[in-house]
Structures are given as C-alpha cells and as structure tokens.
Amino acid sequence: MSIPTLEVVARAAGVSRATVSRVVNGSPTVRIESRQSVEKAIAQLGYVPNRAARTLVTRRNDSIGVVIAEPTGRLFGDPYFAEVLRGIGAGLAAREVSLVLVLSQSPDEERRAARYLTGGHVDGVILFSLHGNDPLPEHLQSRGIPVVVGGQPPHGARVSYVDNDNHGGAIAAVNHLIEQGRTRIATITGPLDMPAAVTRRLGFLEAIRAAGRTPDANLEECGGFTREGGQRAMEVLLQRCPDIDAVFAASDLMAAGALSALHAAGRRVPEDVAVVGFDDSIIALSTQPALSSVHQSMEVTGRELANVLLQTIDARDQVVRHVVLETELIVRQSSGGPPTGKN
Amino acid sequence: MSIPTLEVVARAAGVSRATVSRVVNGSPTVRIESRQSVEKAIAQLGYVPNRAARTLVTRRNDSIGVVIAEPTGRLFGDPYFAEVLRGIGAGLAAREVSLVLVLSQSPDEERRAARYLTGGHVDGVILFSLHGNDPLPEHLQSRGIPVVVGGQPPHGARVSYVDNDNHGGAIAAVNHLIEQGRTRIATITGPLDMPAAVTRRLGFLEAIRAAGRTPDANLEECGGFTREGGQRAMEVLLQRCPDIDAVFAASDLMAAGALSALHAAGRRVPEDVAVVGFDDSIIALSTQPALSSVHQSMEVTGRELANVLLQTIDARDQVVRHVVLETELIVRQSSGGPPTGKN
DNA sequence: CTGAAAGCGCTTACAG
DNA sequence: CTGAAAGCGCTTACAG
Fold it and tell me: How many angstroms separate the CA of residue B73 from the nearest CA in chain A?
C-alpha cells in the first residue's frame, strides 16, 4: 500500500534497478521494450522516486528557497511581493525546479528559516526585502549555498544581486514635479534601514539640490512602505508644512495612503498637491486620481533573480553577478497628466 | 572546505560514527568526555548533518508544507492569510519543524506544487483557500501524506479540517441588521466556488427567511473576496436597488470596498446604509467608520491547523479529525455601534 | 557507554 | 543496451 521502491518496480518489470532508474530519468539508451515494461510497472505500482535517496547521491534538491525578510507582516499587504514571486516562478518555469517560500517574519521564524536553508533542503536561495545589515546572505554563502539578493545587498556583502535604478527613478520623479512648477516638494520615505528607501531618498535630495534649492528636513517623513504609514506621514507633513504643493512617495502603497490623507484634508490632487509614487504597481491605476509613478517591473526583477540564481547554481562558481534594471517615470493624473489617460 | 561528514568528525574526535550521531541527536547515553570531544570537532570542522541521508533513514523531513490555493494573486492582498500563517507558525513553535509555503497561483505552479508535496519533501500538508472540487487533498492523502484542510474540505472528501462557524456568524450579522430595523438588506458574497462563501450566503438567506421575509435575488452580488470586487458589487447593488439600507459583506476587505462605493455615492454609513463585514481583521478597525464584523481568529485557526496536522503525523493513523471554531459578531460604528467605541 | 555492521533507496561508472 | 556493484551520509538495533 505504501510507495514501492525501485527494486520492486525492477522485479515487476523483469529488469535491473539500473534500467528502471534510466527510464525514470529519461536516459535515451534504453531499449523501447524495456522502457515500456518499466513504464507499465511504474504506473501499476504507483511508483514515485524517493527524493532523499536521490538527493543523497546527486546532491541536487531541484528546489530553491525564497525568503522575504519582512518582520512586519507587510509581506501580505503589498502586491509588490506577489509580482516578484510571479516573476521568479516564470524564471523557473523552463526547469523542473520547485519554488519554496520560507517565512521569516519573527526572530523565531528567522532562526528556523536559516536552519532550513543551511540544512541542505534547497539548491540556492533568493533573498528579498532585506533590512539593515542582515547577515543571512553572507552566512548562506559561506556555507557554499548559492545566493542572490533582490535589491542592494547589505553593505560590504559580496553577493550577487538584481536591483532597480532607484536613484534615477527618484530623480526623474522629482524633476518632473519641479518642471510642473512645484516649489514645496515633500517626500514620504520607506524604512531607512532598507537600501531601496535610502537610495530613493538620496535621489530626492539630489534632485532638489540640483534645482538650486535647499532641502528642508520638515519636508521629509517616513511612511514605512505601508498604506497606513503613508497616510500618517502625509497628515504629519500637512500639519508641519501646510504649504506643501507636491509629494514624492517612495512606494505606491504609501502614495495611496497619502491621497487618502490629502482627500480628508480637503486638498485637491493635482491642483493643490501633486503626487508621484514609486513601483507603478496595479495600485497606481486604482487610485483616484490615477497615480503618477516610477515604473519598475517586479515581474522582470523576479525573473532576473531566478536567472541569476540558476546561472550561479549551474556554474558552481563564486562569481558575483549583478543586474540593474531601468526605471521610468509614468505621468498620470495625480501630477497633472491627462485626466482620461489610460496610461 | 566543503561540509565534512560524520565519518570525518568521528575520526577527529577519536570515536565512532555512531557516537557522533548520538551526540548530534542529543542521546543521553554518551559519556561526557566523548560528548565534549565530539562537540569540539563539530565546531572546528563546521559540521552540519546531511538532511537527505538522515531523511532516508528516519523517514522524517521535519518540515510541513502549506499551500494556499489562490489562483488570483489575492494571496497578497488580504491580511487574512498572513494571520493564518502566523498562527501555523505559532502552532509549530514548540517543535523543530519548518514551515514551507508552496505557491499555487497558476496551473503550472499547481502542478509543481503537487509534485513537490508528493515528492517526499514534507511530513504533512496544510491546504488553504481551496476552490471548487480541488482533488489535491485526496490526492495527497491517497499517497499517504497527512493532510489538513483550512475551511470546509471539497464535497465528499474524507479529510481532516479546521473550520470557523461561518453559518452562525452570518446569521448573527443579519439578525443584528434586522434588529436595527433595516428592511432592505443586501449581501456581497465571496466566490461561490468556495465553501466559506457558500455557507455565509446560506446563513444570510436563512436569517432573512427566519424573519419572515422573502429573499430577493437583486439584493445579492458577488465581490470575489477582494476590495475592488466589493466596491464594484456595492455599485451594482446601489444601481439595482437604490433603497438598500444595509449590507452584509462576506469579508472585511469587500466591506471596505463597499464603504468606498457608498461614500462615493453620497450615502452615509450607518445612517443611510448599515454595513457588517466578516473576519474582524485589522481592516475592520482602519475603515471610516469602524466596521462591524463577524470575528473569527485566523491566528487560532492556524494554530489548530498545525496542531491537528502534528497529531495526525505523530499518530500515523487515517483518522479524520475536525475542529470548528466559534465566531462572534462585533458591533462597531458602521452598523450603529457607538462612534467612539474602541472595540 | 560504545562500536561494527546493516540498511535506508537511489545513481552511476564500469564491464560486458 | 544492460546488470552487478559500489557508494552517497546517515541511524539504529545488536552485542558487548
């Protein structure tokens, strides 16, 4: 009743274990009749290869781990992550490799995740949404496990990564607001223990300075990359600087929150306050008015992460690879784009 | 440089492989000196047990799979799932068992998930958010893999499950609206290929009938368990029946969407239209006004799922277990509760 | 308390 | 094209 072994299948098919193994693994050097009798036996007996035994000899797991290091539960609030995962899945599609999501939302889960990943369950790891100086990428790498990081890796870590041009995107967004004649431009930042948040903030400051203006610390507030955080940040900013006429939010979700706050405060968008987000996720099209946003394709990012990881696994080398993907400003109604624009 | 084997550790420590194994597995019958010399060798050599070899002999993986069968990407839009996962994690906390999330969002990923789960990677599986007549639970079970389903399992499937009292919760919600004097009560349903959605709808109809009224098909619209769906459904309902004075939405997310639609249509909540949701998730407290909702603890549900699964794994039996958790109506402002109520 | 030995279920040169 | 045999790295009675 339980799953039979190769041995049993071999006996039923009247061949050796080696031949059954060859059939299971698609070896071309098997006589057609042998193959058929093996296939029949496999079907009859409901044979499924034992992964542990196979892994023990091949040293392959045919699965990769993905950890999204979000301690906050933000993981399930932002469509961003779903897109990345979809992209990773697409990048893996051509190969018989499973994607395993390892949760890491609490210190306890974090330990468990590290144990799982170093425990030889996976052939490689994609790490995402890293905070602060997370030692995990280097820890895994030192154990010989191929690793790729989504976004900028922790400072000083020699790890492969796939990133988006956060700096250029932020500058484009702010330049656009400046060109629209906005003079009091605020920014809602992500958590500043995350490289993407830091880089977008630096782009903001750089663009302000490049326009000959002096950055004003009052025009900056952290929104933690959440909708609620964005709303709260916008409320704070409005209270501190009622004359704000533009906001660059470092994510669409925060921009959506900011729109709620502006609406509640009776400010018209874009007439009184122009708003630009970052991500250009589906959120950007569902806000009222439609949100201008810096486009980055998380699906492509995910696919590249998968590609780079598979490359590293196949090559069995220690080469550090990186890919930086372009970003592009998409102007919609929230910063003065055409009201009916489908874009 | 690569990870050493038991053999190497044994030689370094001057003992046999068996003794090293005993130390690694915490056997009490090891002389203190042997233990120490083994521990020293392990530390020096950076030994980590090979999982595949261990699994091959013990037949344990020390990890369980969780699949959330959401084809839509809804997975990352609803805090509901994060709560369940947190609960499962809590239920596993006492044991050295890893939680592995297996994605199943496209037909391709579904196949891959099934292959992974039947491939002997996990000791048991928790299945969640099943649609229609998904054969996966029975498929896994027939392969001898312990399975627990979150929610009502597919019709006719003899599988363990943990569910919430959807029927009672829906009735309580509708009775409350009736007691508030509402006469035109609509419902926004979830996708009717999901048992939870069906059961909440039936509870709604039953309560309407029990009040001596005749259900009106015009007062029912599907919102697909998403925010956008809830909003759209509310728009449709308002257009069809402008005299609606109450809505029972089968999830908080849909209720939040309905609130947006009501707001946009200029209806006051609760004065013109009373709204009750389902889940009592964090969303219920962040809407304006605060949302009355049927409370169910997804964290507890998750914990119970883990408990039942661990029981089944430990017992190695074929017993079908079920747990049904109570639900409770929480009245807040959206259906006439006190405006400042913290509850 | 400890070691020698068998065995878990596969894959893979090797020889034919 | 195929089989006998070695071996992957562990655990676990068994005997001492």
Answer: 7
